[in-house]
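Service request form, structural biology core

Requester: graduate student, group of Dr. S.
Request type: structure prediction, single chain
Budget code: on file
Notes: please return the result as structure tokens.

Sequence provided:
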Amino acid sequence: MAALYEGYTLCGLVPTQDLSNSCIRGIEQERDSDHVLVTDSTRSVTLYKVSDQKPLGSWTVKQGQTLTCSAVFNSQTKEYVAVSDNKMIRIWKEEDILLDKAFKATVSSDIWRVQSVNGGEPVVLFQRGAVRLLDSLLSAPQQPIEEVLAQEEAIRWSTNIVAETQQFVIFTTEQKGDNFLYLQGLNPNTLQRYRLEGEEPGLIPLSFSASYRDKHICLLYLYPNGHVYQSVVPVRGLGTEEGTHALPLPRSLQMALPVGEGLLEAATALVLDEAHVAVVGVPHPSAGAGKDFLCIWNTNFQTLQAGKEMAGKIYGQLWCYSNKLFIPHGKTLSVIPFVCPKSSLASALGKLRQAKTEESKAPASVPSWNNILHEEKAQPSRTVETRKTRSNRKTQSTPCLTTDQVLEFIKTAPVEDVQKEVEGLLSRSDMQDSQPSVGQLVSILVSRSLSDPAFYTPSTLAQLVQTQCLCHSVCPDFVLLALERKDYFLCQLCLQFFPDIPEAVTCACLKAFISMPDVDAEKASLDPDSISFMETVTSRERGQVGLQNGFNSTSLNEESSDGVSGGDAITEDEEKPSTRSEQNCPVGLHKAVLLNEVLQTAYSDSFLLPHLKDLSSQHVVLFLQYLQFLYLKYSQDAFPQTHGLRSPSLAQIMDWVCLVLDAHFTVLVMTPEAKGLLLNLHNYVKSQVRLVSELGKIESSLQALHQMKVKKDVGQYSIEVIELF
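Core staff response, request fulfilled:
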């Protein structure tokens, strides 16, 4: 299934007088997948390195001048091209500082947009529909420009696509409520005009998106009523008859998105691949009013595959480059990475993860409903058979409720009856792992549980989570409900199965886990694999053992006199009890299991740090002591392998140590109880630095080994002498 990963902020948005405008005129990919050009709606162009969220350069036109189309990168000349005040073309290089001193050329007609494809020459599209290659236009900037469009016809959207070996400029226009599609081919020059079929009176498309596949240009467009249509134009034969006579363009309905009450105002549907569409500005089917989401829909199976709530106002703008979505919302421009695995019926039903490897790699074919829905039940155990037989008998004796009937039923029915009906619904073959229905069930159950303190169905909620058809964005109050009811097993399941938990919720879980008494934690029934891992960790011999990763059993004593920068030395009598206590887990077994789930949750540093500062100093010290305990256990030579058991990695442990220290270092320095802990952590870092330093001394030798040519005919046995200088 498609997935949206945790996003990050690329830059802030400059406020404008028009609150409905994001101030972003356009975003274009630059030299590679990690660089983009962001053009604002006034005067500036900024080059960003996406992975670092770092501006590499910025250029601004003079006060009183305005950039009227987004800047593009000319990959042939390694230059940037933009247009100011509709007629002035500006060209500059990355090392140029002032745009006013860069190359400028004024043309004779207003420009709509400059468009560029990787490896191709930029193309200039004029507001009246004419098209020129940039070099041809600059050779005579004042050349006359013909008018292609009819009176009162105006361009609404444009892009360009390379189809086979020919570049096409694609743009749509509107004239008195009618919409047209133009395909302008280059080298050779051809032009074809199509009329789009009309929708309800007064409705015009909100957004367009084009793609090229199977020798056809596919145009996807979204209407305010939520209807998403696709029109397909074959590339072969285009332009054999050049002219402006409009041909009818058939369309097919791809999806009817939920719009709630009224019509959509600012929304975009963007093609990601042949089966997935990213949508912004359309209500989430399972969320309440007033919330804006970025969603990925599967057009083949009409299913919502992923959703992420976006804070602040949505402007209906969306760009996609290199599996990253760029979306302005509120006061920020965010980057949301995503994946869209190859679409299949099994993945749409949530069953792809259970399919055999050889089947998942087989060529696409007509899938078998029986195999998809019942594959995992091919050899059921006797217990499952008995339960299934009882369920079938009950089904034969009592009529089954439909999904809509169950959704209405659980709004008012008692807890026992709700659990019974939901479990029966989930056991049905036509319902199993159906993502939209599971999302609706969870939303209603959570909503009722929050409003009615006497109503709570823990086993049913756990069963729904284990379908793996849910994520945090489907029901944002799910984890908070589990914390409120102190249902720690449900919290653990959410942390395991939800890939999009926000950092604020992660910190809320951490705060709840670290502050609860060990007695309460031991009462919770948790995942057996997680408990087995901690039992393995805590059952190791308490004595000193050799350590790896540059730290050994004597390093702490050898370096303790160094102290923390600016701190006092610690005596041997003070050191020994602390070292012994480090071998004991500072928290109970079940609390440790829950903390491990937090350590394995995905996060972004910049968003997590502010929430970590809400922890008290007492809880911070305890958490660092536990992280220190895990680090020591992981570094032991005798530490057992835990393959197959759910456990945090050493890298995750050290990342959390760094985050907690960043958030609370000043407080920890002023806390007497944390002095020994900080000293130990300081010594661990020194040991790692010493190890890296020693490895650096043999780096050149290792590189020489790597570059050596391996003899192909070695035989079954050989001895080779390698001299290192």
